Structures are given as C-alpha cells and as structure tokens.
C-alpha cells in the first residue's frame, strides 16, 4: 500500500496542532504552579545551580568565540566601504540584542532541555511520577514549577555574562590582530550601547528560558515506551526548544523594533 | 453483620486503549480490614484496575468509591487530600533516585504534611525498622540497594503515614523465592498491624495465598471468580483451575 500524500499532510498537521494545544495547556498549568503554594523553594534553588551555574562554562566559551568571529566578519564587511571603525558598536549591538540571548538559549536547549526531558521521562517510565502523586504531592509544583522558575531567572543572568564575554571576545580580536586601541574600543562601546539594547536581550532571554524548561518538562512528562521513549522525548525536547527559540526571537525582535 | 458498606468499590468500571477494551464493566469491592488479591494473566487489566482505583488513570465509564464516596473525578486538591488514606507499593518500588532512602520514606511527611525534616527523619527510620532495615540504610541512595531492599523501602514509604488502604502492584515480581517470601511476610505484618484494607495484584500464586484473605480472578476485563484464598485449589472454575495448574490449554489463551 502506498502512502497517500494528502493523508500524510493531514496527519502531520493534526499532530502539529495537537502538540501546540497540549504544550499550551501544559504551559498554563506549569505557570500557575509557579505561583501556587506549596512552593518548593529548595528545589528551585537546586535547579538554579544546575541550570544556571553549571551552564556558565559552555555559555562563556560560546560567547567568546562568537564575539571574536563576529568582530572579524564585521571588520571585513565594514572594510568594503571604509567603515572598519564602526566594528565595536556593531559587535556590541549584535551581541546584546541578538547573539547573547539566542546563543545562550541554544546552549541551554542542548544542555538543559535534554537533561530535564531525560530525568522527568525516566521518572515517568519508572512510575516515580505516579508515586509522587500518590504521596499527595503535585508533580507540577514539585518538578515543573521549580525548573520553569529557575530557567526564567537563570537565562537572563547567563545572557548578561554572555554579553560581557562576547564583547570581550570582539575586543580581544580587535586589539590583538586588528590594531584597535584597547581603551578607545571600550570607550566607544560603552558610549554607544543603550539600556534598551541590553534590556531587550534580557527580556528575550527570560522568554527563551521559559521555552527551554517548558519543552524539557513537557516532553519528559509525556514520555512513553520505556528507554526508547525517553530517548525520543530528549530529542523532541531539544529540537522543539531550538525551533521555538528562533520563532520567539523573530517575533520579539519584530515587536521590539516597532516599539 | 456490619452495616458499613465496602471500604473500596469499583462499579461498572470500563476502560479502553485506542479502541481496544481492557476493562468492561468491572464490579468489585473490598470490605474494611480485608486483603483482596486480584490474580490474572498478563494483559488482563490488573494494573489498569489498580491505577483507576488510585486515580492515576480515569475510567471511560463507571466509578470508584472509597467509604461510599465517589472519588473518580476529583479536583487536584481534593485528590491529594484523599491520597492521605492511601499507600501504594509500586512494581519497581518507584523510589525517587535523586533522594536518599529516608527522604524517600519521608517524602509525603515533608512535602505534603509539613512535618519538619528532623521529625520526618525519625519517623522514616522508625518505618524502616518496621521493614527490618537499620538506620544505616537511611542515608544510602536507592541505586545502592538490592531489588529486595528497594521493595522494603517502598513498603516503608507506603505505610509511614498509617494509611487506611494499601495497594500492592506485583509485590514479588523480579525477586527470588526467599526474598519474595520475606516481602510477603512483611506485607501481611504491616497490613494486619495497621488494620488496613489491602488490594494486591499479582500472578504469583504463592504470594496470593500468603497475603490474601480473598482472591478474585480477572480475565478479559471482568471478574470470573471470587472466593476465600483458601478455596483457590477447589474453585470449580475452569479459568482459576487452569491458572493454578499453569496449563497452556484451557479457556485462557496464553499471551504469546
């Protein structure tokens, strides 16, 4: 029997709509749980350390190399119309408004969404989530809410770090290989950058943090089918988090540029 | 004769998965303080029966009553309150692997009952001693324990808050006969000690005889026989006879 393309498209569309609906319901319930006592603050603290603190190395490394590469590219591009000197400003703008939050979020999608989906998925597979319910404890409050809250807090902080290190990466390349003056570079960056450049990036980061934790929790919570199901949940968490981050980035950028 | 109704009752419970019916109109009840064992082959709906009773799964039709009250479609908060009456030992023990043994046992006390960690730890260690585990096990993690020890910790977690109803999902599956017998003894001791009502599902007949006052046989989504555990060898029911004898030929088709 051949595959009917109309049927395949229909099935994929229905599946997509079902995903959106279920994820939206999950997001609403998860968000409500963040504010509904009992709040498991100890759990939130633990998640802040594992999501935020332990992501510092990977976010820092990503930022320094991206800042450096960005500086080289902008220098080359600027050179085509004798505007090399604008490089520090464009690097600062590109990092704070766009690359800082997006790259930090993508690294977290890989590191954190996957870990959350695998952990919660394994708990589902071994009936730990059922057990938690029978022990009068709401898994949304105990498992989902702390992860959502921690990611929404941690990603803007990581983005601040990424902004600083990313700009420093540009500065390193500029001063070591492109003969920029170190002090002038810092001064012109500082004078150029506006609060909103950084602030809009941090708002993006908070939204991305929510997406990262939400996709991990959602796919883990509904994992089924043993070890293979947990593997599938992990993959889906990373892929859907990454795609949603790009989509949200475009939407937010549109909103921010028209304000 | 007591005027009180059953402690736990399934009325006309039906459940299907993707169009495949698993339970059709299950009627079953347990009196307070009695231990009922549900036996049956793989895929006959034993786990679904117990999960619906625990509210972990919603039935398509019918309802479950506890002390005469319908508990089938409760809100989250009301359900969590009702769970105080329940304890459950899961098939794989379902211990939280990120928590120590005592934190597992005390999970309900700390996270739902607002007991201080110090007092909860004392109660957890007391519950562990009831299942013959010493205080030295309290600070281990579940992955450092054998399967039998994990079951014992699961039992301690199920009984620590003195529940009225305790569920046992395949309590002896995956254990050697000696460990299984030790678990059976602990189950009987705890259930009788608390005066609790117990519902177990198993395909282990030795376990069924040991922990059950009564046995009910589930086949094809309905109860085909029910009687005192002592009568299981003279049930006169072809399904039970085939199950007890462990024959492949008979009214039950082997699930292969």
Descriptive terms for the model:
heterodimer, A: 259 residues, mainly alpha, B: 256 residues, six-stranded mixed sheet, four-stranded antiparallel sheet, 10 strands, globular
Structure at a glance:
The complex is a heterodimer of chains A (259) and B (256). Chain A is mainly alpha-helical.
Task: Note down, in words, how this protein is organized.
The complex is a heterodimer of chains A (259) and B (256). Chain A is mostly helical and 259 residues long. Chain A has one domain (23-257). Helices cover 86% and strands 0% of the residues of chain A. Chain A has helices at 5-35, 41-52, 56-79, 87-125, 128-134, 139-177, 182-192, 195-221, 226-257. Chain A is elongated. Chain B has 256 residues and is of the alpha/beta class. Chain B has a single domain, classed as Rossmann fold. Chain B is built from 9 helices and 10 strands. Chain B has helices spanning 46-53, 76-82, 101-105, 107-111, 117-130, 147-159, 177-194, 205-211, 238-245; strands at 8-17, 20-30, 35-39, 61-66, 69-70, 86-89, 165-169, 197-202, 214-219, 222-228. In chain B, helix 5 (117-130) packs across helix 6 (147-159), helix 6 runs parallel beside helix 7 (177-194) and helix 7 (177-194) packs parallel to helix 8 (205-211). The model of chain B has no long low-confidence stretch (mean pLDDT 91). Chains A and B meet through helix 5 of A and helix 2, strand 6 and helix 4 of B.
Spatially, the strands of the biggest sheet of chain B line up as: 6-7-8-3-9-10
Oligomer description: heterodimer
Largest interface: A-B, 16 and 25 residues
CATH class of chain B: Alpha Beta
Proportion of helical residues of chain B: 25-40%
State the secondary-structure class of chain B.
alpha/beta
Compute the average pLDDT of chain B: 91
* CATH H-level superfamily title of chain B: P-loop containing nucleotide triphosphate hydrolases
Helical element count of chain B?
9
Specify Rg of chain B, calculated over alpha carbons: 18 Å
User: What is the succession of H and E elements of chain B?
Assistant: EEEHEEHEHHHHEHEHEEH
Ends apart, CA distance between termini of chain B = 45 Å
Number of strands of chain A: 0
Strand content of chain A: under 5%
């Amino acid at each position: 029997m051949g595959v009917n393309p109309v049927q395949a498209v229909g099935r994929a569309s229905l599946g997509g709509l079902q995903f959106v609906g279920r994820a939206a319901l999950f997001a609403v319930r998860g968000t409500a749980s963040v504010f509904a006592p009992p709040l498991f603050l100890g759990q939130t603290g633990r998640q802040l350390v594992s999501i935020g603190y332990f992501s510092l190395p990977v976010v820092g490394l990503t930022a320094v190399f991206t800042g450096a590469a960005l500086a080289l590219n902008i220098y080359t591009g600027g050179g085509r119309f004798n505007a090399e000197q604008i490089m520090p400003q464009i690097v600062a703008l590109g990092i704070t408004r766009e690359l800082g939050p997006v790259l930090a979020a993508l690294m977290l999608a890989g590191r954190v969404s996957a870990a959350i989906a695998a952990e919660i998925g394994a708990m589902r597979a071994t009936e730990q989530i059922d057990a938690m319910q029978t022990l009068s404890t709401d898994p949304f409050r105990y498992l989902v809410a702390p992860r959502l809250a921690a990611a929404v807090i941690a990603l803007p902080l990581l983005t601040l770090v990424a902004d600083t290190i990313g700009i420093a990466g540009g500065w390193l390349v500029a001063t070591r290989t492109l003969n920029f003056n170190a002090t002038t570079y810092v001064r012109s960056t500082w004078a150029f950058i506006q609060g909103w450049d950084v602030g809009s990036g941090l708002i993006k980061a908070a939204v991305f943090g929510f997406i990262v934790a939400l996709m991990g929790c959602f796919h883990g919570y509904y994992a089924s089918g043993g070890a293979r199901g947990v593997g599938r949940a992990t993959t889906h968490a990373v892929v859907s988090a990454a795609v949603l981050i790009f989509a949200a980035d475009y939407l937010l950028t549109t909103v921010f540029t028209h304000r | 004769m007591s005027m009180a109704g059953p402690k736990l009752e399934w009325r006309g419970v039906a459940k299907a998965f993707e169009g495949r019916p698993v339970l059709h109109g299950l009627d079953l009840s347990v009196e307070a303080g009695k231990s009922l064992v549900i036996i049956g082959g793989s895929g006959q709906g034993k786990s679904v029966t117990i999960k619906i009773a625990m509210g972990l799964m919603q039935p398509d039709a019918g309802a479950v009553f506890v002390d005469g009250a319908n508990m089938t479609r409760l809100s989250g908060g009301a359900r969590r309150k009702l769970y105080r009456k329940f304890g459950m030992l899961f098939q794989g023990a379902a211990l939280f692997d990120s928590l120590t043994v005592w934190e597992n046992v005390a999970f309900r006390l700390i996270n739902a009952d607002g007991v201080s960690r110090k007092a909860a730890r004392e109660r957890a260690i007391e519950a562990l001693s009831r299942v013959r585990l010493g205080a030295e096990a309290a600070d281990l993690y579940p992955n450092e324990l054998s399967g039998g020890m994990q079951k014992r910790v699961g039992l301690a977690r199920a009984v620590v808050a003195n529940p009225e109803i305790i569920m046992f999902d395949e309590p002896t599956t995956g254990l050697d006969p000696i460990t299984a017998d030790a678990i059976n003894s602990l189950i009987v001791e705890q259930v009788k000690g608390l005066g609790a009502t117990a519902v177990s599902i198993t395909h282990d007949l030795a376990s069924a005889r040991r922990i059950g006052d009564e046995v009910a046989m589930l086949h094809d989504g309905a109860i085909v026989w029910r009687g005192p555990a002592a009568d299981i060898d003279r049930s006169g029911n072809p399904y039970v006879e085939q199950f007890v004898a462990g024959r492949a030929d008979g009214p039950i088709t082997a699930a292969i």
